[in-house]
C-alpha cells in the first residue's frame, strides 16, 4: 500500500509516517519512481508505534524495543528495558490517577453549593 493509504487506515499523518521512516521505525520499499510501498503489517506496526509514543517512549527506545515487540522474543537486557518502561508507565498511571482524584475533590468542593449541577453531565 502507498503512504496515503497507510495514513488513512491508521489516522496518522503522512508527515508522521515519513518521520517514522527517518527514525528507522517503519521500513518501506520504494518503487522505481521513488514511491513508498508498505506491507499490510505496517498498519499494526504504526498503531504500535503510536501507542508507544503515547506512553511517553522516545523514538530511540521504540527502535530498540520493536524487534522484541514484533517477534515476541527477548534477551535479558531487552527484558530489563521492558520492565523499566512498564514500571515508568505504571508510575505515570499512578500520577494521572492522583491528578484525577485532586480534580474530583475540587469539583466536589465547588459544586457542594450547587446541588442542581450534575458533574456527570457533558459540558
Automatic annotation (TrEMBL):
Q: SUPFAM superfamilies this protein is in?
A: Putative DNA-binding domain (SSF46955)
Matches recorded under Gene3D superfamilies: 1.10.1660.10
Q: Which CDD domains match?
A: HTH_MerR-like_sg3 (cd01282)
Under the heading InterPro entries, the entry gives: DNA-bd_dom_put_sf, MerR-type_HTH_dom, MerR_fam
Q: Which residues form a coiled coil?
A: none
**PROSITE patterns, alphabetically?**
HTH_MERR_2
Every copy of the HTH merR-type domain together lies at: 1-68
Keyword DNA-binding assigned to the entry: answer is yes
- Which of UniProt's keywords are assigned here? DNA-binding
Output the PANTHER family linked to this UniProt entry. MERR FAMILY REGULATORY PROTEIN, REDOX-CYCLING DRUG-SENSING TRANSCRIPTIONAL ACTIVATOR SOXR
The identity of this protein, by name, is MerR family transcriptional regulator
Q: Identify the species of origin.
A: Streptomyces hebeiensis
Amino acid at each position: 500500500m502507498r503512504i496515503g493509504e497507510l495514513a488513512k487506515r491508521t489516522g496518522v499523518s503522512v508527515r508522521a509516517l515519513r518521520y517514522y521512516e527517518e527514525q528507522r521505525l517503519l521500513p518501506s520499499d520504494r518503487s522505481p519512481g521513488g514511491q513508498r510501498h508498505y506491507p499490510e503489517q505496517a498498519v499494526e506496526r504504526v498503531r504500535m508505534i503510536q501507542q508507544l509514543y503515547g506512553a511517553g517512549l522516545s523514538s530511540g527506545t521504540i527502535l530498540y524495543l520493536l524487534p522484541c515487540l514484533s517477534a515476541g522474543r527477548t534477551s535479558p537486557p531487552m527484558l530489563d528495558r521492558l520492565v523499566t518502561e512498564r514500571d515508568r508507565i505504571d508510575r505515570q498511571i499512578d500520577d494521572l490517577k492522583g491528578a484525577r482524584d485532586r480534580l474530583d475533590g475540587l469539583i466536589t468542593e465547588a459544586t457542594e453549593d450547587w446541588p442542581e449541577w450534575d458533574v456527570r453531565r457533558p459540558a
